Amino acid sequence: FPVTIRQYVKNIGRPVEVVLVEGAKLEGTLKAVTADEVEIETIKGKGKKAVTELQAIPFTTIKTTKVQIKF
User: Fold this and answer.
1) CB burial class (10 A; 0-12, 13-18, 19+) of residue 39?
2) Contact 29, 13 (CB under 8 A)
3) pLDDT 10s digits, 19-70
4) Of 10, 32, 51, 68, which one is least surrounded by beta carbons within 10 A?
5) pTM for the whole thing?
6) Any idea what DSSP says for residue 34?
7) What single-letter DSSP state applies at residue 8?
8) Which residues are within 8 A (CB) of 18 and not within 5 positions of it... i.e. 6 or more apart?
9) SS3 category, 41
10) Integer Cα distance of 36 and 56 in angstroms
């Protein structure tokens, strides 16, 4: 596997963009890492209707992960 779990662990709490094998993109905050998957907190909607969701993404479905730089 090209990316080590250690690299995910050191980026917990940072905003990330995950590209899945099928091409879908997810953006959110990296919340947790296990041996098999990562958990990303995503926000759907805007303003008062915003809903926070935790999504578990297995490593086998991840193509790339990039840490987003926010200014």
Assistant:
1) middle
2) yes
3) 999 999 999 999 999 999 999 999 988 888 889 999 999 999 999 999 998 7
4) 51
5) 0.84
6) -
7) H
8) 25, 26, 27, 28, 38, 40, 57, 62, 64, 65
9) strand
10) 10
